[in-house]
């Protein structure tokens, strides 16, 4: 069975796999309210270690079998990170229902799928990004928005839709300032009731393997 996120997502799209609830008693993390396990339609067996977001169909692994037969646990951090960026149902067309909603009489062919795959390869190589980037929830949410716009206005020129780096940079700093103000206000309100705790944590990025000291407020 394929261990490729793209193939698993395609199998869900074509109905060869389907989602099911995670009913294991030990799996009580909040992420399982948003994520589902994946079953293979032909055998009705679980696809080992895989889960999918019920809102946007992002497929993520939480464990995997090693070559020696042992099981490597990834945990649910990547699932939780996805939940932070995935929009709630109703805000975008990223829901399961809209994922299956297609133009009548039109089908996404394997040849078209190959062209998408080739475009993703070129994006990774030409952009010098990590292979993990193609599974990034932010990228998939962006791609979904582009598909939505294309379905509304047709095959637009990408240069008429996307903004340049300076505009994105400016908007990013504006968003950062906006978030800072919201955080400051939230902390100030909680501190009045002595409900604030501070902690530090060491994190390492997956691309350059640089370590950073995080400062977290609870």
How would you describe the overall organization of this protein?
This protein is α+β, with helices and mostly antiparallel strands and 218 residues long. The chain has 2 domains: 5-160, no CATH class; 165-217, no CATH class. The protein contains 6 helices and 8 strands; from the N terminus they run αββββββαααααββ. The strands form 3 sheets. The protein has a 4-stranded antiparallel beta sheet, with helices on both faces. A hairpin with a 5-residue loop joins strand 5 (63-65) and strand 6 (71-73). The protein is globular and about 60 Å long. 12% of the residues are buried. Residues 89-100 have low confidence and may be disordered.
Structure summary:
This protein has 218 residues and is an alpha+beta fold.
List the helices and strands and how they pair.
Layout lengths: L4 H10 L2 E4 L14 E6 L4 E9 L5 E3 L1 E3 L5 E3 L3 H9 L10 H5 L9 H18 L9 H17 L11 H27 L6 E7 L6 E7 L1
Antiparallel strand pairs: 1-2, 2-3, 3-4, 5-6, 7-8
Q: Helix and strand string, N-terminal first?
A: HEEEEEEHHHHHEE
Helical segment count: 6
Radius of gyration: 20 Å
pLDDT averaged residue by residue: 81
Strand coverage percent: 15-25%
- Trace the largest sheet across and list its strands: 1-2-3-4
Gap from first CA to last CA: 42 Å
Low-pLDDT residue spans: 89-100
Helix percent reads 25-40%
Largest sheet: 4 strands, antiparallel
